[in-house]
Amino acid sequence: MQVDVDEMRSGANRSYNAASFAMEGADALSRVNPASGxxxxxxxxxxxxxxxxxxHSDHVKRLRHHENRLGVLGDKGHKTASVFVEMEExxxxxxxxxx
Length: 99
What we know:
Elements: H1 5-30, H2 43-98
Helix pairs in contact: 1-2
């Protein structure tokens, strides 16, 4: 089995970058909210505003969730790469001791 540890770390870093973009998106989106009454002051407009506000809140939550999951994925990628490097070092040492 061959493992490209550098590629694994590169992928982990890309996950961190994606997490950062998700965080930026969530931060930007959470700074604004659809203003009450923007669509008018009648029942259908108020109902639409409620649905829009709920969707807005949902998007912020999803972006925060993506940020978290992508960060965890990056952590796991780096941890896995380190485990492979350590295993390779142990195996190389074991072979040197036999020879």
